[in-house]
Write a structure and sequence with these properties.
single chain, 151 residues, alpha+beta, six-stranded antiparallel beta barrel, 7 strands, 27% helix
């Protein structure tokens, strides 16, 4: 039945109502500091996985921690540049964000089965290529924020 409370829905339900919006340039990049290990919840499926931020200036460059985390990412829609609304649960806060699932460029951890990294965007974060906000990431951040409100 669709009402079965899976592990995924349980975390999703538990976090709904506590989601906040955080400006990347006004505290966001300090909150999600380099080296942070956190949980990402995919808003559309309720699935969650663990990730780590290792870099990024205009947004967070992140990677899955284990092969199991990589398998969850791949299960969302394969590896794709499509943006997805997500919640970042870390250090007592749940923050609306957006990510894509495509591994690219820097690959700090070889053992996670993810050949590269993915990007996480918070409110007002930017892309490196243009130093501008990405409308698609900002649209997904907004979807994540609206989905996390306690209406």
């Amino acid at each position: 039945s669709t009402n079965k409370l899976t592990k995924e829905n349980a975390r999703f339900t538990q976090l709904k109502g506590s989601v906040i919006r955080m400006n990347w340039f006004e505290g966001g990049k300090e909150w999600l500091n380099k080296g942070a290990r956190f949980t990402i919840v995919d808003v559309r499926t309720g699935k969650s996985f663990r990730a780590r931020r290792f870099g990024g200036w205009y947004h967070a460059d992140c990677e899955p921690i284990t092969k199991d985390d990589t398998a969850v990412i791949k299960s969302l829609e394969g590896f794709s540049w499509n943006r997805r609304p997500v919640w970042i649960n870390y250090n007592g806060k749940t923050v609306a964000a957006s990510m894509h699932t495509m591994p690219h460029m820097a690959n700090p951890t070889q053992s996670n089965g993810y050949d590269g990294h993915f990007c996480v965007h918070l409110y007002k974060s930017k892309v490196h290529e243009t130093s501008a906000e990405c409308p698609r990431h900002q649209k997904c951040e907004n979807e994540a924020y609206r989905a996390g409100r306690a209406d």
